[in-house]
Amino acid sequence: MNCRSDISNENILTYKKTNLFKETVIRLSMNKGAMIGLAFIVILIIVAFSADLLYDYKTQVIQQNIKNRLQWPSKEHIFGTDEFGRDMLARIIHGSRLSLTVSASAIALAVFVGGTLGAIAGYFGKTIDNILMRITDILLSIPMTMFAIVIVAALGANTINLILALGIASIPIFARVVRGAVLTVRDVEFIEAAKAIGAKNSTIILKHILPNCLAPIIVQVTLRMASAVYNTAALSFLGMGVSPPAPEWGALLASGRNYIRDYSYLCVIPGLTIMFTILSLNMLGDGLRDALDPRLK
Amino acid sequence: MIPVLLGVTLLVFIIMDLAPGDPVLLILGDNATEEARIAKAEELGLDQPLLIRYYKYITNFLRLDMGTSFISNRSVSKEVLSRFPNTLKLSLVAATVSMAMALPLGIFAAIKQNSFFDNISMIFSMMGNSMPAFWLGLMLVLVFALKLGWFPVQGANAGWKSYVLPSIAIGLMNMAAVSRTTRSSMLETIRQDYIRMAKAKGITEYRVIMRHALSNALIPIITIAGVQLGNLLGGAVITETVFAWPGIGRLMVQSVSSRDVPMILGCVLTLSISYSIVNLIADLLYGLVDPRVKSMYS
């Protein structure tokens, strides 16, 4: 008995402790692209949160100041002013709050509904799985942007409906991803063990299955955020999302379009902001995918 | 595919039915009498339950009758079918442009893995994948149409020149996705034993890459190319608006602004059917390029 305990103690001493979270962070921190993306996103989130401290929404973002209209970038107005004399930097900064809120809310809705449906389909299988997956087939056969436009067309164009439209359009993607992830762990021994001790289905799904398939969900959330930022801007650009004078990036681009010939900065700056946000999210998503599953690299 | 299409039609039909506002009032105006409104609702079949209207819509749809526009009173089928070739032509040109750039880029990046060219091409792909097509379109218009005057600002009346800017704007995003898939698929293939064997036999590098590696790496490339062509059709909604392209996407955006439900339905269904057909063609191509897939079903 003593001898056995000695061996196990020795094993414990020589055993290198592994921690998936720690390993993922180390692998992620070695990926330069992912770290640049993460830094940009963190800065953007901080800027979005402190937007009100930097520029007052009513007096500097919305209020017109015709005297200052269409001024090229200068020391006073780093990003210039728009056709109503409003500071473009102030509008871009407050726009980041709108774009990130709309995109994050839409993705949260999609993760919650899609994840629940995917987990149910994957865990219970058979008829429920068949029905839910055929519904996702139908939803996936409508291009995402077009599906969002249809929903906005039916419900009307405003911020809440934009979130609903983008969220609903992303549900099938998350349902598929979560179902696939659940299928990989559904028949593993620890799930059988949980069933054997009489755990409820909801407990098994929430406590045992979902924590074990978080990796693909996290990766998909990051990549889909990029796509949500794109679609938020696209729908606002078409006049089907956030309506003026709210400074959504796509709406800024749409209003700057009328002055593109002589005041190109009105289109260049919002476009670059959208591009760098999407690029950062894509780089972070790719980095996370490589860090969470190095086999995919 | 048919059950999926039936599902798509039912789903879009239900969503559009949720649209607030009375279509009869949209047609007749707010001052119409009660009798006129009831008569118009009966004429359009709007007094019927949803499922009966759906059944009638589907049976008419099979005869290529997609109803009449609430706004222009023109046949939706005629309007959609007259615009669809423009969208299809633009999508095919954009797909050709993106494939012509993506395949060589992906293949070279894989052959010269971790080289300067590989890094630059992947950065270029990453940037292309992140660039909103509607913004890129505006920038191309600014430089090549407004400043240099090489191409028209909008429309499809200037022959081949009309296609250049829109096809680059929508093709670049797809190029990025296809080149990245080509690179990773080629990287996996060129590490296989049969490629080493082919090289050992003294076959030229070009032949090894084109004959042995590329043909075996094609399946994921075809998958992503199919998805991307579908996205081109779906993304037409935005790019056609930027370039005032007389296609189905722009028609849809105009119909959404005027709440012309039959026209929106017609546009969505036509684009969804095209999207499904493109994916079906991609599935069928697997059998052509890979004998293993063909043998599974023969």
Structure description:
The complex is a heterodimer of chains A (297) and B (298). Chain A is built from 14 helices and no strands. By secondary structure, chain A is mainly α. Chain B is mostly helical. Chain B is elongated, with a radius of gyration of 24 Å. Chain B is 79% helix and 0% strand. Chain B is built from 13 helices and no strands. Chain A binds chain B through residues 33, 134-135, 137-139, 141-146, 149-156, 226, 230, 233-234, 237-240, 253, 257, 260-261, 264, 267-268, 270-271, 274-276, 278-279, 282-283, and chain B through 3-5, 7-8, 11-12, 15-16, 18-20, 126-127, 129-132, 134-135, 138-139, 141-142, 146, 230-231, 233-235, 237-238, 241, 252-253, 256-257, 259, 264, 268, 271-272, 275-276, 279.
Low-confidence stretches of chain B: none
Calculate the terminal CA-CA distance of chain B, rounded to whole Å: 21 Å
Helical residues, percent of chain B: over 70%
Please, how many domains of chain B?
A: 2
Radius of gyration based on Cα positions of chain B: 24 Å
> Could you tell me the number of beta strands of chain A?
0
Largest interface: A-B, 44 and 45 residues
Main β sheet profile of chain B: none
Question: What percentage of residues of chain A falls in helices of 4 or more residues?
Answer: over 70%
Main sheet makeup of chain A: none
CATH class of the largest domain in chain B: Mainly Alpha
CATH superfamily of the largest domain in chain B: MetI-like
What is the oligomeric state here? heterodimer
The geometry of chain B reads as: elongated
Q: If helices are DSSP runs of H or I spanning 4 or more residues, what is the number of helices of chain B?
A: 13
Topology of chain B as a string of helices (H) and strands (E): HHHHHHHHHHHHH
Short note summarizing the structure:
The complex is a heterodimer of chains A (297) and B (298). Helix content of chain A is 74%, strand content 0%.
